[in-house]
Design goal:
Strand content: under 5%
Number of domains: 2
Helix content: over 70%
Number of helices: 10
Shape: elongated
Number of strands: 0
Largest sheet: none
Order of helices and strands: HHHHHHHHHH
Oligomer: single chain
Length: 210
């Protein structure tokens, strides 16, 4: 049985009809707008409901509080990223696939940097079930194409480190107002492929340049 705290972070009900789904989508869009424009200090169920144009009662039909809305936002963004990364991973050449996956991360960060930064912080605080496990599995499969003889531990360790490097670089980029997409992609490519080229003796098969 879920704990009381767990229940507070879960939606009250899932939208089963198109109209309900639209209401939830409007609520999430309003929440994202407030976080992005006004920051967390102005973020409340009342301001979200007002921005969404729904009654507070309607909002509470779906979400028990603002943390549940934040988790829904995190999961919504995570689903979009996972789908894009999965599509990129299907590219035949492992290196091109990895470059395309890095491009997904860069585009996600640059699209709405203020929102991405806040959701990253809230993800650390709320610790919802996130998309990291799926991303690690996809990345590990791509790395196995090049490191077919490495151990499972090596594949997984490399994937974990690449995700950490990517997140660290994109988080720092979010704190800068003048980072372009090309600049961020270049920094990510250098960081990821530079690491892979020097990570361990087994990883020496990775090229230092891209």
């Amino acid at each position: 049985m879920p704990s009381p705290r767990k229940k507070q972070l879960q939606p009250r009900k899932r939208p089963a009809q198109a109209r309900s789904a639209e209401t939830v989508a409007v609520i999430l869009a309003a929440a994202a707008h407030i976080l992005e424009r006004d920051g967390y200090s102005q973020y409340s169920t009342n301001t979200i409901a007002k921005r969404a144009g729904v009654s507070i009662g309607s909002l509470y039909q779906y979400f028990p509080g603002k943390d549940a809305i934040t988790i829904a936002l995190i999961q919504q963004e995570g689903t979009r990223v996972v789908r894009a990364i999965e599509e990129a991973s299907l590219i035949g050449n492992w290196q091109d696939a990895l470059i395309a996956m890095i491009d997904v991360a860069a585009r996600h960060q640059i699209a709405r940097p203020a929102l991405a930064r806040i959701l990253d912080l809230e993800e650390s605080r709320l610790q919802p079930e996130n998309s990291k496990v799926e991303i690690l599995a996809i990345l590990e499969a791509v790395l196995k194409r090049r490191l077919s003889n490495a151990t499972h531990l090596c594949h997984r360790t490399l994937a974990v480190d690449v995700v950490a490097i990517t997140r660290g670089v994109t988080d720092m980029a979010a704190e800068q107002d003048d980072v372009s997409l090309d600049d961020l992609r270049h920094r990510l490519d250098c960081a990821v492929f530079g690491y892979l080229a020097r990570a361990c003796p087994t990883c020496a098969v990775f090229p230092a340049e891209t």
